[in-house]
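Notebook, bench 3.
Goal today: get a predicted structure for Hemolysin A from Candidatus Protofrankia californiensis so we can plan the truncation constructs. The sequence was checked against the plasmid map this morning, with no discrepancies at the termini. Length recorded as 344 residues. Pasting the sequence as submitted so the record is complete.
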Amino acid sequence: MTRTRRPVAVRRTRLDRELVRRGLVRSREQASEAITGGRVRVSGRQATKLATVVDDTTPIVIVAGDDPGYASRGAHKLLAALSTFGGSAAGSAAEDAGGSRLRLRVAGRRCLDAGASTGGFTDVLLRHDAAEVVAVDVGYGQLAWQLRTDPRVAVLERTNVRFLTAEAIGGPVDVVVADLSFISLRLVLPALRECARPDADFVVLVKPQFEVGRADLGPGGVVRDVALHARAVREVADAGARLSLGVRGVVASPLPGPAGNVEYLLWLAGDAPPMPPPRLTEAITSAIAAGPAGGSAGAPAAVSADGESGSVRSEASAPCADPAFPAEPDPDSEPSTECDEGRR
């Protein structure tokens, strides 16, 4: 008697999930970075979408990137800030309100990485000779192994940065860096300020998609109006000012978010005097013009001393994106009923 063999069921799934299942990457965030960075080949062809459907027999290869040594692509965001603000030997110095040259210093200082994820920012801080980095994230098991096992790194997982305390991280830090999603920096800065020394430096990644209201989001959750970019940066700067943090500098991130949103790195400092409004407007406008959004149709709208812009509605922007309406889908995030820190 001949027994008919049943066909083997083929497992079909999203490309980003399959990369994790095969062990080609450590997390879906790394999968996103590899795919959007053009480093994934499916059946010999470059993949461009995270949701591409593949099966468990599909040939998938990840090719080497420009700098495979960093824990994540996000490292290049902080590198841009340190270069601009003088954190590296080749970097140019910023100037204070009086024209004095200043440099953002990392070497020998204790740092906090808020929203550490796989550790791109932590990696950069260590390579710039930070004495210690406290890596905090709401997730679990994401930090790259080489960073997790580094004696200079203290890992604090399953922790909402909004409720972080200096006691929880072993005392105040000298430098704070932050790359967070699904929550406004205006809601997080008070807790971060409490975790830092009075004269601490802050380098925070301003993401307009999580600072403006949902009504101002374009298709795909992308904020394309450069006037809204300016408003988002200014509102975070104003939130810092209320915490006695002055602006030292601002620069556009060289890398967009996963959906294409342009982001900005804002340098705040506890020992910096308030930046005069006209100069702050000039700094923000220059950063936008020099960044990826500089080629957008129309020049950046001028922002007045009180933060208003002729092309920006006066209604209050939402302090936190609604998790039920994620402006920029995060591959590692699950639906939540409260604002989460982001992934890197």
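The longest strand covers residues 196-206. DSSP finds eight helices and 14 strands in the chain.
Flagging this for group meeting.
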